[in-house]
Amino acid sequence: MKRILLILIAIVMQLIVFSAPDSLSYLSINDFLKTVAANHPTAKQAEIAVEKGIASVLQARGSFDPAIAGSTEQKQFNDKNYYQYTNAEIKIPTWYGIELKTGIDNSSGIEINPERSVPDAGLLYSGIALPIGQNLFIDQRRAALRQAKLYKAMTEAEQQLILNKLLYDAAVDYWNWFNDWNAVAILQNTLLVSKDRYEAIKLNALLGDRPSIDTIEAAIQLQNIEMRLTQATVELQNSKLQLETHLWDSNLQPLELGIGIAPPAYNQEILISSYPTVINFNIDSVVINHPELKTYELKINDLLIEKKLKQEQLKPIVNINYNFITEAIGSNPLADYNTSNYKIGANFYMPLFLRKERGSLKLTRLKLREANLNLSFKNLEIKNKVLSNINQYQSLNDQIKLATQTVENQTILFNSEKEMFNLGESSLFLVNTRESNYINAQLKMVELITKSRKSYAATLYASAINN
């Protein structure tokens, strides 16, 4: 009768081990990462970086905006109007370095500078300013706009990198939580079984069916499991707190995981997992499209623009200004155009040794050479890192297959040993040993699944493929 009672208790305990509370809501890795990508402050900051790139292009385009300018100067003394000069003009910069302008000059007074004397109605002028030396092919304005466009592209690549790092860190913290939650679940279920066995053995010892020494051995096993569970619970609490650092709502308010929120159980994760057994990446495609390499390429393009600008500065400055002039009122500017009425000017400047310009160009060339070397190194580094993570992931998947068989075998051995113990054909020491091996096999299985999922996340991170 006593042995039958023990067998019934063992059957109930085995059912408890694999039962899960119906009240749990499981948080999948995909749902978790979607929440992180949508609401995390770092993701919002990455969006701001892109907006800054757009703003920088707008700012650079402002250098080509038409401008209205005007000036006036007057001298009045002892009721005499010595002079009054007035000027108003519109300037239109162009992409090719030519500046178009049109305006009107007016002057009056008794002491006008002869060279500023104009007809009573004023003098209308239109013309161009043209650089024929330095700044003919590129100038600071054109370089700034090209570099702003590169900066915009760079912020988009950096946004991908920031989001990629955020999702990788979040995935690692999720799988740490998965590992600790499953470890606690395994030890809690085992603790229930161990407690029931201890109570049954203690009862049988009181009835004289078991030696009293068995109660001590059962108590030691129970205490060992309790100690492991206590440590695992602390680790779960910490990993849960770390996971919550990634959870925010749409109003940027931090969220907490509810008591009933859990990751999938490790045996469920194996069954329902959508993770591939083997990763097949086109490495060349990954490298070509990698945003980190794009940032290096964009930096090189930025230096090429800077190099072209520095080369332009080796030329002499030669600017020509030409304006045709005519009376402002009572005339048709086109019909009255006369080649003999004009203002023309030119200026020239060139340092004799060009040491500043030559030194600046040499520094830019050295930076460009350095950037190309960095690009070559980073190209190989990314490629090897991706391949290394793929190899590790596939190795861990092979280990998971072996670990699955180990858990199945340890389950058989543990159940058989319990049956033999209930029939009086085994010892509690062997049962405890089988139970410890069974616990360790499950925990090892959880550890391997965790490492595998982290390795997959690391592969996506190294490839810059956002989850």
Describe the structure.
The protein is 61% helix and 14% strand. The chain has helices at 2-17, 29-39, 41-61, 140-206, 213-244, 266-272, 283-289, 291-312, 355-422, 428-463; strands at residues 25-26, 67-77, 80-93, 99-108, 123-131, 261-262, 317-327, 342-349. It is an alpha+beta fold and 467 residues long.
Give me the secondary-structure topology.
Elements: H1 2-17, E1 25-26, H2 29-39, H3 41-61, E2 67-77, E3 80-93, E4 99-108, E5 123-131, H4 140-206, H5 213-244, E6 261-262, H6 266-272, H7 283-289, H8 291-312, E7 317-327, E8 342-349, H9 355-422, H10 428-463
Parallel strand pairs: 1-6
Antiparallel strand pairs: 2-3, 3-4, 4-5, 5-7, 7-8
> Regions with pLDDT < 50 over 5+ consecutive residues?
1-21
How many strands in all?
8
Q: Termini distance?
A: 58 Å
**Radius of gyration computed on alpha carbons:** 40 Å
Strand order of the largest sheet: 2-3-4-5-7-8
Helix/strand-derived category reads alpha+beta
Anisotropy-based shape: elongated
Which assembly state applies to the chains in this document? single chain
Q: Average pLDDT value?
A: 87
Give the ordered list of helices and strands.
HEHHEEEEHHEHHHEEHH
Roughly what percent helix?
55-70%
Query: In percent terms, what proportion of residues is strand?
Result: 5-15%
- Total helical segments: 10
- Give a quick account of the main beta sheet: strands, pairing sense, barrel closure: 6 strands, antiparallel
